[in-house]
Amino acid sequence: MSKIWTNSGDSHFLEPDDLWEARLPKRLAELTPKSEKDPDGEYETVRFDGQTFRRKLPTSAAVKFVEDSRKAEGIRDARLRLGDLDAEGVWGEVIFPSLGMWSSSFRTPELLRACMRASNEWALEEIVAVSDRYVVTAQVSTLQVEDAVSELEWAAAQGFQAVSLPTRPHKSAPDWNTADWDPLWQAAERASMVLAIHSGTDPIDLTSASPNIAYRGPGGAVMNYTETTFSGQRAAMKLVAGGALDRHPGLKVLISENGATWIPFLGDRMREGYRQHHMAVRPKLTRDPKDILMTQVYASFQHDESAVAAYEAMGYRNVMFGSDYPHMEGTFGHTQDTLKELFDGVSDETRRRITRGVFEELFPRVPPAPEDTAPEAPAFEDRS
Amino acid sequence: MSKIWTNSGDSHFLEPDDLWEARLPKRLAELTPKSEKDPDGEYETVRFDGQTFRRKLPTSAAVKFVEDSRKAEGIRDARLRLGDLDAEGVWGEVIFPSLGMWSSSFRTPELLRACMRASNEWALEEIVAVSDRYVVTAQVSTLQVEDAVSELEWAAAQGFQAVSLPTRPHKSAPDWNTADWDPLWQAAERASMVLAIHSGTDPIDLTSASPNIAYRGPGGAVMNYTETTFSGQRAAMKLVAGGALDRHPGLKVLISENGATWIPFLGDRMREGYRQHHMAVRPKLTRDPKDILMTQVYASFQHDESAVAAYEAMGYRNVMFGSDYPHMEGTFGHTQDTLKELFDGVSDETRRRITRGVFEELFPRVPPAPEDTAPEAPAFEDRS
Fold it and tell me: A227–B243: do the CB atoms touch at under 8 Å?
């Protein structure tokens, strides 16, 4: 059997529920999220950072949906995980932890700082230490710029190669297009830390039983998944239009689980707006906004057949495969089938760029993936 | 000089401000929008359909921005317009009237019906009667499904070939993904009326001085223009995921001024969601959601270089040029330059499909555009 080896620009890990509580000093540990379910299983009372709210518990269908995405033991165990990766043909991985979903709802800067640090220390011990194939994204507070900067610098010193940022910063902080974040961009550029932004990470309303559900009714499941790409696109748009990437040409952004073909598309649209509305455009950029997007923003996709054409026919070089391990939207269980479909009839150069070249460019410290295995010789020679 | 002739999937007309007031019976005319500016020019009082509200007047920069988009006399005069079109090399046009921006804020079904009818009668007399190159989109109420159906049927009988729909229906009506709209889809399919949806037409908050401005601060102008594509994408997504296009395979949707490359991209994302989240997907579709999007949804773009590659390399056949005449985002004044850039080195087959073939497929009653003019012979033979 032939095997295509790939790196992944998008993978997931699940921390223990009590990570923060176990690692924070008692005074702060008491403020971390706690839930008490009603005896009838309909509602829960959540206490978190001085806030108390009641919320409906998710339906059994919603619970099963989440559990199905967490079935693989490798989501909790970095050693077992390697077996899954080898079987799938996935080598290096950009790994996003899961507890970050609470980040947008903290109120106390000190508490959020402590939780982010605890998450990062835990990741170093439990994931990074296991294999140099794992590129875990460091978690930082986005409640205050200076907290993000200091955690990023600490994380870079510990060997982290990427920092995870949400598609929008904390609700009470200025947005990504403002110059307020320049100290963070400067620190990331200096430390060669990739900004890793995962789709669907806009701040959420924790008081809702299903904070990520924008649509109900016919087509809802497809629409809710499709919708998540827009917040990822907006994050890139803000970093380009606000000038952050222009002022920091060494900064690299990875937008994960967001598809790839939107990059040349959004580049054309931003260029059109920039040129046709020039009288209203501030700041002026020193480079074309599409060129900035196409060169400094990287994209990871799973199944999209158009992603290969975005590379070959639209000049977008920064397309990277991502397995989304072990989530349902991803390729776990069928990675080799997906890779073979994607690259059937495609040149070696294209395949190598998308499966390994882009990842190696972003994360040069990860050892190279094994060479692909050629298909076995046919059982008998075809003499036709 | 060589000349490339093109049709346009996206053009604009400006009705007289008093169209509704002049054509409606007095009882209803009194309810149409009326504004009274404060003497100091800071605020206005708007009375409209029983609602009265104060709103800040737009800044002089915003007023100038709008005026710059309306400078060409052809936006108000369908005879003068032909001169501009001939000079630009634009033949047939899908034309969107402008008064529709009020539609999402009506409350009285009878009033909205009367205004839509007045707009349509006016368009027949003032635009359609002038040239068979003009495909004016009929306006319909989206406050009540049955009103939309009856106006669409009336409009089809008058010779309209397309109906204009906003990216979302009226705030108090169900959304496009619901089966409530099936009678409208059925009527449109039966009458071969194209559903023409222009980007940026989500319901607006009329009490705001700048209802279309989502972003302020650095990059705001570029971001506000870029953002408008998402509502157009959502409209197509809802029509596919909710099953409308699957149940009505003869229905054709044109999304205008929204770019084109998003179609293969969104198709990949919807297919991924549909397949990977199959356990949660309702309704099941009889065809692949990407195939539905790629075949029944048409897209018009202005400057996007990636649109040509979407046709050639991503199998998306329904890409159409649009001039957006005479708006600033469009190509008025440089249409020939844009066409020559877009199609430099591109095959005749591709150029003809994008400039005329797709439009002819949607609007077979428009006479064909003149043949392109070849470049003049060089002044002397090149003997090198």
Answer: no
